[in-house]
Amino acid sequence: MARRKKIYEGKAKILYEGPQPGTLVQYFKDDATAFNAEKKATIEGKGVLNNRLSEFFMVGLNQIGVPTHFIERLNMREQLIRAVEIIPLEVIVRNYAAGSMAKRLGLEEGQQLPRPVIEFSYKDDALGDPLVPEEYIVTFGWASQQDLDDIVSLALRVNDFLSGVMYGVGIKLVDFKIEIGRIYEGDYMRLVVADEISPDSCRLWDVKTGQKLDKDVFRRDLGNLTDAYTEVARRLGVMPANVTSTKPTLIN
Ligand code: 5GP
Q1: pLDDT band at residue 1 under the 50/70/90 scheme
Q2: To test the ligand 1 pocket, which listed residue (35, 201, 229, 232) has its Cβ within 8 A of the most ligand atoms?
Q3: How far apart are CA 23 and CA 83, in angstroms?
Q4: 3 state SS of 172
Q5: Ligand 1 pocket check: which of 36, 113, 175 to mutate, most ligand atoms within 8 Å of Cβ?
Q6: How distant, in Å, are the alpha carbons of 27, 77, 88, 175, 206 from that of 199?
Q7: Contact 160, 63 (CB under 8 A)
């Protein structure tokens, strides 16, 4: 049998050619990297959890009218997605100071921001994904001013949705990163949420205890990453079939 064609391999995912034109299969690996791949590990089960969690968030976004690349989950590690042209930006939304913002400005982690803050990094591993102002984005043609306005409103809608969903299960959405893709339909271009939304790309803290339930557990050696992601999945009622639970919360 012919091997399917690999289109791209990143740090945490692989993209394969999809079954129909304009589709791709997104495979979630167990690999974890941090600090621009200076720290690496393979964490058993992470890919399965992120596949499920990203499905859960993308399906929810599609249902409230925020377009995403997601079509359907195929199996434990793979989902069918629409092929998009990725805009080379990391779109970061922050509700509380943490991570690079806290470091850059000398703020205490966890300080609530007066309003959600959106920032952009230029996706370039060799440069370490530098923070860039909107003027750079327009000047270098990565996105137009109109695209940027649309990206900001998409990012704020994603923020409202994710914050609400997480708050409902006792988790604070501190910040997150999304990527945006372009889909061409005839003469029209649409911007959609692409890549993944998972604890790899969000900061998630337990509302009561402040316990970290995201990739900072790996970045900062705070414990078992799979346990943290499983807890997020359990609270959301999104459990992979091979993880036992006392509650009947399986979603196929
Ligand atoms: P920070 O800039 O504080 O390091 O990250 C802000 C948010 O964006 C965090 O939720 C972090 O997980 C996410 N983020 C930033 N850069 C990346 C990246 O290259 N990959 C992933 N998966 N998430 C990122």
Answers
A1: low
A2: 201
A3: 5
A4: strand
A5: 175
A6: 16, 16, 21, 11, 13
A7: no
Nearest to 181 by CA among 22, 20, 64, 1: 22
**pLDDT above 70 covers what percent of the chain?**
94
Query: Could you give the dihedral angle defined by the CA atoms of residues 224, 226, 232 and 237, in that order, rounded to the nearest 10 degrees?
Result: -140
3-state secondary structure 98-167: CHHHHHHHCCCCCCEEEEEEEEEEECCHHHCCCEECHHHHHHCCCCCHHHHHHHHHHHHHHHHHHHHHHH
Length of the chain: 252
Q: Is the CB of 99 under 6 A from ligand 1?
A: yes
Distance, CA 155 to ligand 1 centroid (Å)?
Answer: 14
Per-residue pLDDT reduced to its tens digit, 114-148: 999 999 999 999 999 999 999 999 999 999 999 99
In this structure, which residue's CA is closest to atom 24 in ligand 1? 201
Whole-number mean pLDDT of the chain?
94
Nearby residues of 164 by Cβ (< 8 Å), 6 or more positions away = none
Statement: residue 242 has pLDDT above 90 = no
Nearest CA owner, ligand 1 atom 21 = 201
Cα of 72 vs centre of ligand 1, distance in Å, is: 25
Q: Which atom of ligand 1 is nearest to the CA of 200?
A: 22
Give mean pLDDT, residues 190-203: 98
Question: Is residue 172 lining ligand 1, measured as CB closer than 6 Å?
Answer: no
